[in-house]
């Protein structure tokens, strides 16, 4: 009887173990596969966690497409956006940069299946606004030359009040505050950059995606000192009337080293460029953490 009871217990344990082994898990594969329809792959350039339903609702409310689009989760902080119309996809790409809670959304077309760890989303087009342009420079030549330092200009616009330049920014690198430009008649003029629809960025390291509080580029021992006199400011945002301490400093160099311009009616030359010397989830609220001064974005 005891032997029989022992056999029954062993059989029950075996059955219990088999039941646990028969549990079927569902996990995402390592491949991200495009839909048969026009598809974008995107991620939010932020170090914060955010609510996925809030992201979906934000995108649905922000975009006014002709037909519906669907948002699918493709991984952690990775999404597929599937469009009924190719024209809607192109409209979204043309309207970049787009922001979610003041964090930049990075997009690319997904045309073929890719391993998730091979996906590279590190750049976005931006408009740079140059509000004051010295009369010594031909504006079109200036924009073309500046665009070359960003790997080429995507587009440029010139008006009497200001110039605009559309370029592709590597979001892993610090924002450039401006550039030195020279001609045969003027040496070392500082051209200030202002970025349209700029996302959250760090006033300490100049990189997008975090504020100074969460910056890991600045050693903790130096963070307090840097925060007292940060090298970057809200002056980088188009629409701000601030010029930034670096512009005041660099423009003072022009007064010391510049020479008077002349109008000789001669052939126009492309300016010689001198490169700048510096080269659970919680919903993201998105305020600019570096300062109480904030500006709106999409």
UniProtKB/TrEMBL annotation:
- One Pfam match: DUF4283
Start and end residues of each DUF4283 domain: 37-109
> So which domain of life are we looking at?
Eukaryota
Q: Would you tell me the protein name for this molecule?
A: CCHC-type domain-containing protein
Q: Which InterPro entries match?
A: At4g02000-like, DUF4283, Zn_knuckle_CX2CX4HX4C
Domain (Zinc knuckle CX2CX4HX4C) spans: 169-216
